[in-house]
Amino acid sequence: MDPIPQKKQSVSSLKCITDIRIPCHSEFHARCLQQALSVEKELTHQTERFFNVDGNYLTVEVRASDARMLRKSVTSTMDSIHLGVQIVEAFS
User: Fold this and answer.
1) Which superkingdom heads the taxonomic lineage of this protein's source (predicted)?
2) Helical H runs in 1-90?
């Protein structure tokens, strides 16, 4: 399955990039998280996130225009992932 982009942006303007790899109990749980998190839109055009599933892992690529925006986006993404993991674990 292709990554789900949250925002269209020119890649050249987003120079700060990081990848996050979250282990999940199963590929099904990783897909649930991917689908739940992909609907949350970034509030600025200075960042974008791509969610993908690689086996039992949820992978997230975060791109931003500068380090400050990258930190903000990663922090927000990790908060959302933490909540999503708690919900998936509660219902599994």
Assistant:
1) Eukaryota
2) 27-38, 67-90
CB atoms within 10 A of CB 60: 23
- Report how far apart, in Å, the C-alpha atoms of 40 and of each of 11, 35, 52, 76 are: 20, 10, 15, 10
User: Residues with Cβ < 8 Å from 2, sequence gap 6 or more?
Assistant: 52
User: Along the 92 residues of the chain, how does pLDDT read in single tens digits?
Assistant: 555 555 444 555 889 999 999 999 999 999 999 999 998 887 788 999 999 999 999 999 999 999 999 999 999 999 999 999 999 889 87
The CATH number covering residue 36 comes to: 3.30.310.50
How many structural domains comprise the chain? Answer: 1
How far is it, in rounded angstroms, from Cα 80 to Cα 67? 20
Q: State CA 50 to chain mean position distance.
A: 6
